[in-house]
Write a structure and sequence with these properties.
Helicase, Ruva Protein, domain 3; 337 residues; 42% helix; 5-stranded parallel β-sheet; alpha/beta; 2 domains; single chain
Length: 337
């Protein structure tokens, strides 16, 4: 039997707790309310997040603030060209017990609830791939022995734009394991003035824990109970299918390959999370439209001619959303808002 959706009261109470988390993160990062909402949405959907932006925009402080507000055990790995896979996952250590040699597994920093993979694209592809198993299966295998990771397990990775010196592109298989790719943009002059007046350089803001680990587990479970209407699921399926070459007019010319089924699952989970963040018990078409860009932008790969013509994944996704229209005549009015 399917789990019943939450009641309106449960959704409203959850939204109240989540708004407290939102307010806490707004003390860390000024003028980035939309970005903060997307980070909370990804967390509720139990997804890993990739944050891209120039150095100094607050990506690392946002992740650290999230860990403090949630009361999660967290670790940070600074990705550098000389970082090795074992520096992340851990390594077996040879010990002598009672004169007999034996191996003991020394856990790496990936064994935490929230891992900050800082500047992930400054490490080599070999080292980047050390996270593949952890991102998908949430466990690590070393020398044939599998070690489960703590729960919840979230990876928030930051990366610099690929145009900067000393960066490596992430493998496609790894990109697909991130639920969202979020762009951290610079703030306007008014927000900069606020930062100058309220923040001393090098001194992070003090963030108190917003709710307990038990409450976080309850919110994650509540997110999975949010209702996903069949018409919304159909919209998600048609949108993801349209990203492949030949499946739609917009994707026929410049797309090398489109989004995987994992993208559809990610979009569905994110829609549930966004609904709960806004105090609703069902997801809607508007949730799909709002989340299509962060879910799909890193999963659609364009050919070289697209760059020549100035086409980006953002413009393509906008065209796909316009082309893959929802069936308004079959949709209750409450689901379209």
């Amino acid at each position: 039997m399917d789990t019943p959706p939450p009641s309106d009261n449960e959704a409203s109470e959850a939204a109240r707790h989540l708004n407290a988390l939102r307010e806490a993160l707004q003390k860390v990062l000024f003028g980035q309310d939309d970005l903060i909402d997307l980070v909370i949405t990804g967390m509720l959907a139990n997804g890993h997040l990739l944050l891209e932006g120039l150095p100094g925009l607050g990506k690392t402080e946002l992740v650290k603030g999230l860990a403090m507000a949630l009361g999660l055990h967290h670790r940070r790995v600074q990705f550098t060209p000389d970082l090795l896979p074992s520096d992340i996952t851990g390594t077996p250590l040879l010990e002598h017990i009672d004169g007999r040699p034996s191996y003991r597994f020394q856990e790496g920093p990936v064994f935490t609830q929230l891992l900050l993979a800082d500047e992930i694209n400054r490490a080599s592809p070999k080292t980047q791939s050390a996270l593949l198993e952890a991102l998908q299966e949430r466990h690590v295998t070393v020398l044939g022995e599998t070690h489960p990771l703590p729960t919840p397990f979230l990876v928030l990775a930051t990366q610099n734009p690929i145009e900067l010196e000393g960066t490596y592109p992430l493998p496609e298989a790894q990109l697909d394991r991130f639920m969202f790719k979020l762009e951290v943009l610079r703030t306007d002059a008014a927000t900069l003035e606020k930062i100058v007046l309220r923040r001393d350089a090098g001194i992070p803001p003090e963030i108190e824990q917003v709710f307990s680990t038990q409450k976080l587990d309850e919110l994650l479970a509540l997110t999975r109970r949010i209702h996903l209407p069949i018409v919304v699921a159909n919209f998600i399926a048609r949108l993801v299918d349209s990203t492949h070459p030949g499946a739609s007019k917009a994707s026929s010319a410049h797309v090398r390959y489109g989004a995987s089924p994992r993208a559809a699952l990610s979009l569905a989970s994110a829609c549930r999370a966004r609904a709960l963040l806004n105090g609703r018990i069902h997801s809607s078409f508007e949730d799909v439209r709002a989340l299509a860009l962060p879910v799909l932008r890193h999963r659609i790969h364009l050919d070289y001619s697209a760059r020549v013509e100035g086409l980006t994944t953002a413009t393509l996704i906008a065209e796909l959303l316009a082309e893959v229209t929802d069936h308004a005549d079959a949709t209750p009015a409450s689901l379209s808002a």
